[in-house]
Amino acid sequence: MPKPAIKLRPLNANIVLKDKVYEALKAAISSMDIYTDEDPARLDERRLAEELGVSRTPIREALSRLEQEGLVRNIPRRGTFVVRKTKKEILEMICVWGALESLAARMATVHASDEEIAGLRKMFATFRDSEGASAHIDEYSEKNISFHQAIIGLSKCGLLVEIAESLFLHMHSIRSRTIRERQRVTGSIIDHMHIIEALEKRDGELSERYVREHTNNLKEHVNDYVDWLE
Fold first, then answer.
1. Distance between CA atoms of residues 179 and 133, nearest Å
2. d(CA 153, CA 160)
3. At the top level of CATH, which class does the domain 18-82 belong to?
4. Which of 72, 86, 105, 154 is 20 to 30 Å from the Cα of 210, by its Cα?
5. Domain ranges for the chain
6. Which pLDDT tens digit goes with each residue over 153-207?
7. What is the gyration radius of the CA atoms in the chain, in angstroms?
């Protein structure tokens, strides 16, 4: 299994501000699959500075902000590493995410437009069955993550979106890895279709229940089969 690698693009040095460096690093870290390797991903200041085309000073400032947010951890004489959660912590995060997303689904039946809900179905138009999804698992995995983000956004509740964002890094990585395990992609497709149909019917109670059950399936899988977390 390949080691997780942070991917960055150079920034225009003429317009670089501390906030831009911070935002670039946070976005890059949020897109990483931080549980694909046994060891936490190390962030090398020099390489980050070279790839962004900036000095190491704004890199250090950005990493300090990210450490305050709990996304990275600086270990003296070893370096800065992306924070990985324990199995217990991940299970707690899944529970909280499930509560947020199920509430978001209920709210979406009231606040989302028909076009926005239809957009959820379009996400999976190219995956007619589990065989097709399994054959393009990387693409399906990203669609899966985008689907759950979209439901949060369709709530049209800024505070709910903000709280969910604080969990996204780890939820993204856990979903990305576990979708490949024990043929979970089959159940994922079925669950998504049920959720979409409930949203299309504007059935808030049913939408909320389907999302909660879907998240509980992830929690049970992590609890029963994930042995690569501490």
1. 11
2. 9
3. mainly alpha
4. 86
5. 18-82, 87-225
6. 999 999 999 999 989 989 999 999 899 998 899 999 999 999 999 999 999 999 9
7. 19
